Amino acid sequence: MRGPLKLQPKMKSKSVPLQEGYNFAYLDEGTKRMIRRTLLKAIAIPGHQIPFGSREMPLPLGWGTGGIQITAALIGPDDILKVIDQGADDTTNAISIKKLFVKTTGVQITERTEKATLIQTRHRIPETPLKEGQVIIYQVPIPEPLRFLEPREPETRKMHALADYGLMYVKLYEDISTHGRIATAFMYPVLVHHRYIASPSPIPRFDNPKMDRMPALQLFGAGREKRIYAIPPYTTVKSLDFEDYPFEIEKWDQQCALCGSRESYLDEIIKDDQGGRLFVCSDTDYCQQRREKGKNASPSEVVAMKAVRRKKGDETT
Amino acid sequence: MIFSKEPLLKVMGMTKYFGDRVGCRDISFELWPGEVLGIVGESGSGKTTLLNTLSYHLEPTRGIILYWSEQQGLVDLGQLSESQIRYLMRTEWGMVRQNPREGLRMRVSAGANIGERLMALGVRHYGRIRKEVQKWLERVEIDTDRANDLPETFSGGMLQRLQIARNLVTQPRLVLMDEPTGGLDVSVQARLLDLLRALVAEFNLSLIVVTHDLAVVRLLTHRLLVMRHGEIVESGLTDQLLDDPHHPYTQLLVSSVIQV
Amino acid sequence: METRLQAEDIQKTFILYLQGGKKLNVLKRVYLTLGAGECVALTGPSGIGKSTFLRVLYANYKPDSGRVLVFHRGQWINTVEADPYHILDVRRYTIGYVSQFLRVIPRVPALDIVAEPLQRLGLSPDESRLQAQDLLRRLNIPESLWEVSPTTFSGGEQQRINLARSLIYPYSILLLDEPTASLDEKNRAVVIQLIREAVARGTAIVGVFHDREVRETLATREFDVSTEGTE
Ligand SMILES: Nc1ncnc2c1ncn2[C@@H]1O[C@H](COP(=O)(O)OP(=O)(O)O)[C@@H](O)[C@H]1O
Ligand SMILES: [Mg+2]
Ligand SMILES: [Zn+2]
């Protein structure tokens, strides 16, 4: 591993006026240490789910409390935090989480992927490639990729222990049999470091290749299910497939209506009451930066987009 | 049947206690390649426990189980790790459950049920898996059009045949069956028996069949264990045990059914 | 004359537990040596133990004591002590047995039932069925019945199917329990002819022939199972 792995919060003397009555980053230090110990274990066994004592957070379950606890355990006053929800920095969910950390830590918030030291995400990996030294924290609703086919937890645990993974391919087999192709679009299962099968959280399969040999540290937290897992930097992450039905990412005929990108993951949105549709980047920061560099889009469209997206952000996980 | 110089399985003094309750005690027998062993006895006599202990789904309290593995030579099951046992169970062994819901995955298609063992062994070519699925559906007389249907939509006899196909796809050498014809109509039973006999002959397959049906015993098995209170009371050549039972319990068992 | 089978000191007692442990001492120290090309007819009144003795020779009944030595694939094997696996091998290659009753698997056509012993020994299904057809033709089983399960056949037809199963392969030992009992004149003659051919080939036969004429035609000697022997 190249860059130093940042698991100890950078505690500097600089004191910030914080919400009274709460510890720094809301969680008490004992809980944070417990979570950091779990994280170390998770990093040592890439892709393997480790149980942890998940705590109550001042946000409802399903709002990413697993990811929030990891962020809380890692964040220090010098960190720069980015929070995204389905690629957007300005959804209700992302804003609530950011508010929590601003109130309890006073850290700097950014929307710029390359500036962030910690990125907490729900459902996307930023389009801007992550770098060494960055940490991406995924919010995970269902950590167990085998759950759909084998609901018995002791049995799935045994399957992981013995790398008995025929069942995971059963899911892909079913896809091909019914749809003629692997239709799984989200939570597309991956094999981490040639050993453990893991859920990439509900990101689109478009993002799966970004996980492979990513220079940043990837951490996964499931609050309700009390599980943490991790993928250390530069780890091989393979999306499962068949020889005759290789893994493929989604492609669009369209380009982003705002920045013109043909490479990014696009959301289809309804433009007006007449049911007009258009496609825009799901990663708002990426789109914004491209536009700043002078590509495309009128100001009025930008306003419309923001409104639409804010509405979309009202839904929770 | 190809005559073999070595047995496939040798069980010595196998005992399983549940606390201080006896599951099965002092079970010893040999099974040879291509041989069908029947296990009969009243319910609660330890038949299913015997199957589960034999396949290490339950750990025996005592005893030795030797198996002549195709890939690994002579192995003592007690010395294998859990993952080695699992590997053996999905390659050289098979298990057909009395209740097909326990032996099948009801939430995935018939084809996926058959393909799973292949995928577990690392086959990663959909087309090849699909071909095996078709072949085995045909072999167990299920319409290949049903490959994508959920087992939920199958009749009892079809479910048992699907379980058999799911197990045989990796061409195991030993299949354990718990009441495979239980709860089926007589004509459906006959068809299943027929199929089993053909498969035994075709693949020189060894079977261990738990049943309470002496007609099944008579038509399918070569060797028989009669169990009572967890122990073997009499064992030997099937027709010898049925026609010349020596133990009082076997005599009762044989007489208490209509002549088969 | 080459010895094919040797029964020594056979005793057989049935203990009927369901009838209060009643004991039936049927066979008392029976000795029999059987050579190739011999046809031994078991004699004695009904209930004396003829069928019981045949079944002991076939290892269908287990005697209280004694040995049944069978010359099987170049070796002597004592079927009283042998493992079921080896007994079945003896039945596949060496001893054929025709009981008074046909026991068949439902659904399987007559032709396949007759062909099965050959197929078990590794002959191709086609070749096995061809030979079965020849035999069924000789035994006057109408072709219309070949593809039908014999469960519905008449007694005489069933008996001929039973015989065909044992005559299709040249076992070195044949055990026949009343093989002509339910046959008409014409078919009896066919069966006698088939058995004679077997004897001429060197097959060693032990049989129960109720019909005196049949017995006198076939038997090379008679043997009374109630004789307590020291042979
Ligand atoms: N399986 C059996 N169980 C109990 N008794 C039997 C059995 N088989 C034959 N016997 C008894 O043995 C005696 C001899 O019968 P069997 O051998 O059929 O005589 P045979 O063929 O000379 O008429 C009879 O009393 C018969 O009831
Ligand atoms: Mg008689
Ligand atoms: Zn864009």
Within the largest sheet of chain B, what's the order of strands?
6-7-8-3-9-10
The stretches of 5 or more residues of chain C where confidence is low (pLDDT under 50) are none
Oligomer: heterotrimer
Described by the principal axes of the CA atoms, the overall outline of chain C is: globular
Structural class of chain B: alpha/beta
Can you count the beta strands of chain C?
9
Report the principal-axis shape of chain B: globular
The portion of residues assigned to helices of chain B is 25-40%
The number of strands of chain B is 10
Q: Sheet bearing the most strands of chain B, described?
A: 6 strands, mixed
Alpha-carbon Rg of chain B, integer: 18 Å
Please outline the helices and strands.
The complex is a heterotrimer of chains A (317), B (260) and C (231).
Chain A (H helix, E strand, L loop, with lengths): L28 H16 L5 E2 L13 H10 L5 E6 L6 H14 L2 E2 L8 E5 L12 E5 L13 H9 L4 H14 L10 E3 L3 E3 L9 H4 L5 E6 L4 E5 L5 E3 L26 E5 L6 E5 L2 H9 L6 H14 L5
Parallel strand pairs in A: 2-3, 2-4, 4-5, 5-8
Antiparallel strand pairs in A: 1-9, 6-7, 6-10, 8-9, 11-12
Chain B lengths: L8 E10 L2 E11 L4 E5 L6 H8 L7 E8 L3 E4 L5 H10 L1 E4 L3 H4 L6 H11 L5 H14 L16 H13 L5 E5 L7 H18 L2 E5 L3 H7 L2 E6 L2 E7 H6 L4 H8 L5
Parallel strand pairs in B: 3-8, 3-9, 6-7, 7-8
Antiparallel strand pairs in B: 1-2, 1-4, 4-5, 9-10
Helix pairs in contact in B: 4-5, 4-6
Chain C lengths: L2 E14 L5 E14 L3 E5 L6 H8 L7 E8 L2 E4 L5 H10 L1 E4 L11 H11 L4 H14 L16 H13 L5 E5 L7 H17 L2 E5 L3 H7 L2 E4 L7
Parallel strand pairs in C: 3-8, 3-9, 6-7, 7-8
Antiparallel strand pairs in C: 1-2, 1-4, 4-5
The complex binds adenosine-5'-diphosphate, magnesium ion and zinc ion (ZN).
The site of adenosine-5'-diphosphate has 10 residues of chain C, from β2 and α1.
